[in-house]
Amino acid sequence: MRKALMAVLATAAVLIPATPPAQAHDRSLRDAAPRYLRIGSAVAGGGHHVDQPYPDPFPNDRAYRKVLAREFSSVSPENQMKWEFIHPGRDEYNFGPADAIVAFARKNGQVVRGHTLLWHSQNPDWLAEGTFTKAELRKILRDHIVTVVGHYRGKIQQWDVANEIFNENGEYRQENIFIRELGPGIVADAFRWAHQADPRAQLFLNDYGVDWPGVKVDAYHALAQQLLAARVPLHGFASQAHLSMRYGAPDQLASVLQRFDDLGLHTAITELDVRMDLPATGVPTADQLATQAVYYKTVLDACLAVAGCNSFTLWGFTDKYSWVPVFFPAEGAATVMWDDFGKKPAYYTLLRTLARA
After folding, report:
1. Could you say which of 164, 171, 175, 331 is catalytic?
2. Rounded Cα gap, residues 333 and 207, in angstroms
3. What are the helix (H) ranges across 116-214?
């Protein structure tokens, strides 16, 4: 497998150089980035990792932490701040894993993106299967937001407050227990409560499938206008940018972000990865690696083209801990580094694009 991989990389170098210019050998992504732009990664842990044949990545893999500190100026807990991990019992909070990430970030001069407060997925059984009155459910959400955001007051730069609240048709997602039982107005309340708990944090709407113009983007734009008109403390809109090479590169993403920038909002890329259908060998071809690099560059170019895009986050940087093969078994190799932290053409394309900016 290793020999096959090296052969692919040698061929890929013809299409996209596998190494940066000599003067850039010692530069990291965070070093190359413009000063205003935070370059981030999700911090592996929790979620699908619980079922994998390796220890929890963040506390146990020293080499992983070294790369995380060197390459990135922002970190996002992949799962450690989601409800099922941080609020496992109605009267029980588990801050330990997320606290460790925040401490790591402070030690390494990084900011933290909090993820996430209002979502339909990865909720604990006590919440998803509980029987609550509307008043009880409202109190549960308020207490959760005030407790979690308050716990990290002054330590989180940006929060994904409302995550994936619209379906593809632009209608509110009814799988979200709070929206279903309390109505769409609860979204505004979630932002108000988060702002009260930490007035300095930037508060975001966040979703996938908003990389091209369409009804879903229109729904978020209308909601943003509504919230701003009501003086709700909304500060930003983010595209997750989970991409597949089965579909085209998001060449209209800049125009999407610009619509929200025009409203006076920050914008961000929050969960970027680019998955592909792997050959029978399990090793991407040189052409696939070259195409993947183009997708990554397309998203970064979109962020750089919009004045208020101040955060650019990869959803993990190594295939070793990627969520993609677990949820998309036919696809993989979605990140910018191999299992051994060797750098793919996509990494060097990002590095050069950031340096030019």
Report:
1. 164
2. 22
3. 125-128, 134-151, 177-182, 185-197
Closest by CA position to 338, among listed 293, 295, 291, 284: 284
Distance separating alpha carbons of residues 278 and 61, to the nearest angstrom: 26
129 is catalytic: no
Catalytic site residue 71?
no
Q: Catalytic pick from 71, 78, 84, 271? A: 271
Interatomic CA distance for residues 117 and 149, integer angstroms: 9
Joined tokens for residue 43: 């911090």
Q: Which two tokens stand for residue 11?
A: 């061929």
Query: How far apart, in whole angstroms, are the C-alpha atoms of residue 88 and residue 13?
Result: 48
Spell out the per-residue pLDDT of the chain, length 357, in tens.
434 444 444 434 333 444 454 445 579 999 999 999 999 999 999 999 999 999 999 999 999 999 999 999 999 999 999 999 999 999 999 999 999 999 999 999 999 999 999 999 999 999 999 999 999 999 999 999 999 999 999 999 999 999 999 999 999 999 999 999 999 999 999 999 999 999 999 999 999 999 999 999 999 999 999 999 999 999 999 999 999 999 999 999 999 999 999 999 999 999 999 999 999 999 999 999 999 999 999 999 999 999 999 999 999 999 999 999 999 999 999 999 999 999 999 999 999 999 999
What token pair was written down for 313?
Answer: 């986050």
CA 77/CA 115 separation, integer angstroms: 7
The secondary structure element, H or E, covering residue 89 is: none
- In this structure, what are the phi and psi dihedrals at residue 119, rounded to the nearest 5 degrees? -150, 155
